[in-house]
């Protein structure tokens, strides 16, 4: 009788181990504790069939000891099992990459040079008060033009990578170089830096 119980328990454990491969640690623990409880119930029934009261009591003590050991082992394995990583809150995919141009910074040099050139040109128009007005207007227009020309000369390309996070949020990251990312690429925000996932 006892050998049959051990054989059944061994087969049940093998089947449980196969099924446990596709389960979470919590599901594995619950399945293992159910298996242990079922085995303990079966062992107590076998002990109840024993005619000698001394042997029956020893059988029940042995069954309880096996139950306690198995439960302690199952709890230890559950606590030691690594937790599954949760969903990545900073993961998503590239929704678009836009190439644009960023205007450069202007300095006083562009403003002054444009103003002087505009004043010289304005000074050559008209006479009297008209010439003075043309000089002032030329200086103002030249300063503005000089500023814009300098900004254009110092402009640079900029790549904007738009990201749709898995949780629905959206963000945009700018690069001063080609990030080598395409629409649909899986990415992750790593402390403010966009990296491929």
UniProtKB/TrEMBL annotation:
A GO CC annotation given for this chain: outer membrane
Pfam families, alphabetized: Rick_17kDa_Anti
Domain Glycine zipper 2TM: 109-150
Matching InterPro entries: Bact_OM_lipoprot/Surf_antigen, Gly_zipper_2TM_dom
Localization per Swiss-Prot or TrEMBL: Membrane
Domain of life: Bacteria
The keyword Chaperone belongs to this UniProt entry's keyword annotation: no
PANTHER family, alphabetized: OUTER MEMBRANE LIPOPROTEIN (PTHR35603:SF2), PTHR35603
Name of the protein in question: Glycine zipper 2TM domain-containing protein
Organism whose genome encodes this protein: Duganella sacchari
